[in-house]
């Protein structure tokens, strides 16, 4: 709410968007309904945005000064973390990536406009940071032995999708596998 008041004071024509994780979109629901909506504590990687409801003092400010409140997926946040890390050499926690993920969500609506993005927080430990970025590395698995019915399994997807636990569940028994190829798919921010 403080950022909204400052933006309104400095430039009343400035459109300010709020952004929150889609798993915890209490603000978006409240904004669109016109009253405070309460939700269960959301499960999201953006732990700094795991709110259940907006405050009684801040909601009227948000309602009168925000253009909209957007929601973004955890995958959008990871994509933004990767962009900050690879292109800007910055470690930004998932919650701090909400603004970039929201701007990317708006895409064409922002074309040709001056856009400011608030980046906050590097409060993420190295293990979590690496695990989140590794989660969307594309990997191709090939079992080290003959698969079910004598057929070799060749597939690709993300580490999260193809973890050994997932393969064990799919086949009903443990699977030994070898990673044959790995890479990651860069999505353009300007597409």
In angstroms, what separates the terminal alpha carbons? Answer: 32 Å
| Number of helical segments with 4 or more residues | 7
Number of strands: 5
Largest sheet entry: 3 strands, antiparallel
Low-pLDDT runs: 136-186
List the secondary-structure elements in sequence, H or E. HEHHEHHHEEHE
Q: What gross morphology would you assign?
A: globular
Helix content: 25-40%
Biggest sheet strand order reads: 4-3-5
Structural class: alpha+beta
Strand content: 5-15%
Radius of gyration: 21 Å
What number is the mean pLDDT? 79
Model description:
By secondary structure, the chain is of the alpha+beta class. Helices cover 34% and strands 14% of the residues. It has helices at residues 2-10, 26-33, 59-65, 74-88, 98-106, 126-134, 164-171; strands at 17-21, 68-72, 138-143, 155-158, 177-183. A three-stranded antiparallel beta sheet has the order 4-3-5, with no helix packed on it. It has a two-stranded parallel ribbon with strand order 1-2. The longest helix is centred in the middle third of the chain and has 15 residues, at 74-88. Mean pLDDT is 79; it is low at 136-186.
In a few lines, what is going on in this structure?
The protein is α+β, with helices and mostly antiparallel strands and about 190 residues long.
Helix-strand blueprint:
Layout: H1 2-10, E1 17-21, H2 26-33, H3 59-65, E2 68-72, H4 74-88, H5 98-106, H6 126-134, E3 138-143, E4 155-158, H7 164-171, E5 177-183
Parallel strand pairs: 1-2
Antiparallel strand pairs: 3-4, 3-5
């Amino acid at each position: 709410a403080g950022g909204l008041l400052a933006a309104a004071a400095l430039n009343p024509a400035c459109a300010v968007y709020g952004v929150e994780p889609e798993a915890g979109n209490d603000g978006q629901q409240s904004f669109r309904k016109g009253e405070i909506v309460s939700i269960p504590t959301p499960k999201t990687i953006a732990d700094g945005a795991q709110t259940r409801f907006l405050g009684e003092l801040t909601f009227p400010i948000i309602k009168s000064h925000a253009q909209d409140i957007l929601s973004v997926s955890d995958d959008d946040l990871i994509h933004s973390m990767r962009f900050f890390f690879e292109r800007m050499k910055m470690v930004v926690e998932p919650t701090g990536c909400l603004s970039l993920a929201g701007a990317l969500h708006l895409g064409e609506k922002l074309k040709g406009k001056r856009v400011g993005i608030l980046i906050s927080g590097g409060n993420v430990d190295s293990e979590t940071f690496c695990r989140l970025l590794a989660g969307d590395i594309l990997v191709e698995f090939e079992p080290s032995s003959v698969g079910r019915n004598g057929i070799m399994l060749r597939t690709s997807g993300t580490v999260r999708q193809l973890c050994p636990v997932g393969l064990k569940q799919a086949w009903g028994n443990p699977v030994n596998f070898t990673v044959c190829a790995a890479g990651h798919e860069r999505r353009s921010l300007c597409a």
